[in-house]
């Protein structure tokens, strides 16, 4: 009776989790990795049921079927974890490992001894979990929840590698009946259930955190361009300036404004104007790096914060954007007409906040407008010294001369 209860323990947990992930996916249809997690736990549950009630070393087709269910489940789960953080999943490598494992299981099973099956299956699963933990640790950690997922995956890998060793310690020969009725199997079921639940809860927490981040981004981003709106941009810009000050890294700002935009709306209509706004937003998104921040801070006004960038490179970036936009055709606007934009550039000075930096870049933009538009001007003026500082410096020079 206890064996029957244990046989239903893990499948019950996994099937409940499969339903939970399916319900999450119904609310997040674009998140395909969530559907993959649902399929993962469905296959794991089916695999446990088949192993507990039908599989035996003498029934090689059933054992291969169990291994196939587990293998596909593992590959689906890791595809989901990789996809969630934007990584390419080495699906072919994982499939090759599990195929080799299946061959080893088929040729190594002798009689009704469970040990060859345990050795082959667990080493294969352990290797895949170890490779995934390595990849996610190196490239996929974004939050503390991601770290928890990596740790749980690593612990699962260690468990897979430990199981063959423990089976040798427990017994020298293990039939399926002895294996399923042993205290070792009972403890293993509990451990697997706990780790399965821990990994699932970690993934659920990560998915919910992703959903909250998406909601926050939707509220912070401009619906036309996808760029940050003014308030969100200013906060990101202030954070970048603070980080640059702490790390002694240069930070520059570009302020851009589409020229004669009111005339665009008046002549060709607001829809054409909106398309021009979208085109400019996509252009600057393509031309900046992941560490930079872009925002639409007004109707036709945009701002870019550039990380680790001095004034001259920032000015060259603005010039590339200007040239690309000036050469770009626009839907709804005559094919012989090209829109242009003006740019102001400034680099953050020591102890300077967002307000002063923006004022200098915006003043440079104003001068570019006044000079005829469709050009880039950088703020190269020397920082004005305070009168008290100038007087103190003059007095010091007089004292030294005396």
Automatic annotation (TrEMBL):
<dbReference type="GO" id="GO:0005886">
    <property type="term" value="C:plasma membrane"/>
</dbReference>
<feature type="region of interest" description="Disordered">
    <location>
        <begin position="377"/>
        <end position="402"/>
    </location>
</feature>
<feature type="transmembrane region" description="Helical">
    <location>
        <begin position="6"/>
        <end position="26"/>
    </location>
</feature>
<feature type="transmembrane region" description="Helical">
    <location>
        <begin position="93"/>
        <end position="111"/>
    </location>
</feature>
<feature type="domain" description="GGDEF">
    <location>
        <begin position="249"/>
        <end position="381"/>
    </location>
</feature>
<dbReference type="Pfam" id="PF00990">
    <property type="entry name" value="GGDEF"/>
</dbReference>
<keyword id="KW-0472">Membrane</keyword>
<keyword id="KW-0812">Transmembrane</keyword>
<feature type="compositionally biased region" description="Low complexity">
    <location>
        <begin position="389"/>
        <end position="402"/>
    </location>
</feature>
<feature type="transmembrane region" description="Helical">
    <location>
        <begin position="148"/>
        <end position="172"/>
    </location>
</feature>
<dbReference type="InterPro" id="IPR043128">
    <property type="entry name" value="Rev_trsase/Diguanyl_cyclase"/>
</dbReference>
<dbReference type="GO" id="GO:0043709">
    <property type="term" value="P:cell adhesion involved in single-species biofilm formation"/>
</dbReference>
<dbReference type="InterPro" id="IPR050469">
    <property type="entry name" value="Diguanylate_Cyclase"/>
</dbReference>
<keyword id="KW-1133">Transmembrane helix</keyword>
<feature type="transmembrane region" description="Helical">
    <location>
        <begin position="33"/>
        <end position="54"/>
    </location>
</feature>
<dbReference type="GO" id="GO:1902201">
    <property type="term" value="P:negative regulation of bacterial-type flagellum-dependent cell motility"/>
</dbReference>
<dbReference type="InterPro" id="IPR029787">
    <property type="entry name" value="Nucleotide_cyclase"/>
</dbReference>
<feature type="compositionally biased region" description="Basic and acidic residues">
    <location>
        <begin position="377"/>
        <end position="388"/>
    </location>
</feature>
<feature type="transmembrane region" description="Helical">
    <location>
        <begin position="60"/>
        <end position="81"/>
    </location>
</feature>
<feature type="transmembrane region" description="Helical">
    <location>
        <begin position="184"/>
        <end position="208"/>
    </location>
</feature>
<dbReference type="InterPro" id="IPR000160">
    <property type="entry name" value="GGDEF_dom"/>
</dbReference>
<protein>
    <recommendedName>
        <fullName>diguanylate cyclase</fullName>
        <ecNumber>2.7.7.65</ecNumber>
    </recommendedName>
</protein>
<dbReference type="GO" id="GO:0052621">
    <property type="term" value="F:diguanylate cyclase activity"/>
</dbReference>
